Amino acid sequence: MPKQPSKRYRAAVKAADLSKSYTLAEAVDALAKFPAAKFDETVELSFRLGVDPTQGDQMVRGTTPLPNGSGKKVRVLVFTDNPEAAIKAGADHAGLQDMMAKVTEGWLDFDVAIATTEAMKQVRTLARVLGPKGLMPNPKAGTVSDDVVGAIKAVKAGRVEFKMDKAANIGVGVGKRSFTPAAIAENAAAVIDAVAKAKPASFKGVYIKSVTLSSSMSPGVQLASSEFSKA
After folding, report:
1. How confident is the model at residue 1 (pLDDT cuts 50, 70, 90)?
2. Which of 33, 78, 124, 218 has the most CB atoms at less than 10 Å from its CB?
């Protein structure tokens, strides 16, 4: 016997026609009408790209600041020989050999890892641990930097990183359900623009195939192609 849609899903269907495509503003408004969970849900944009994920020159990744922040408390680890300065700048954890030892033992109690250029020479040995978790410092993501203070501030203020998965999809958090519709829309527009600008130079064809807006416990609302086709 087919599984029946949940009560939450049935309520969402009454609030919006999920078979339709919407402008970004309309999608945000529709999301606001969906039943809310008992926690502050994360709002996410999901992209389906037309690139070939098996081609090295078609990898899509990047970072972008969110104009209204992410609404998430970001725990930052800094690999550095000057941990005192990093902690003073707002890092939650800092150090080099001691932090590397903890990570090697399986400790991953942080959301973003930053490394100075010098420290990165040693941190590279943690690639097998941090890489699969998406936590490896990377110059393209702004997490390998000698401007530790600036890097910490950018991450804490709501800079998000996006990276295409093996199926050519990208998911990026753009805020919380508690944000105003205008704040969510502004953050979402910034992410769409950033993903558009990350288009590989070698790629020819339809780059962004579809974009969906959803929250942690809601169904997705499809964006009209006019919202991203020009990208």
Report:
1. very low
2. 78
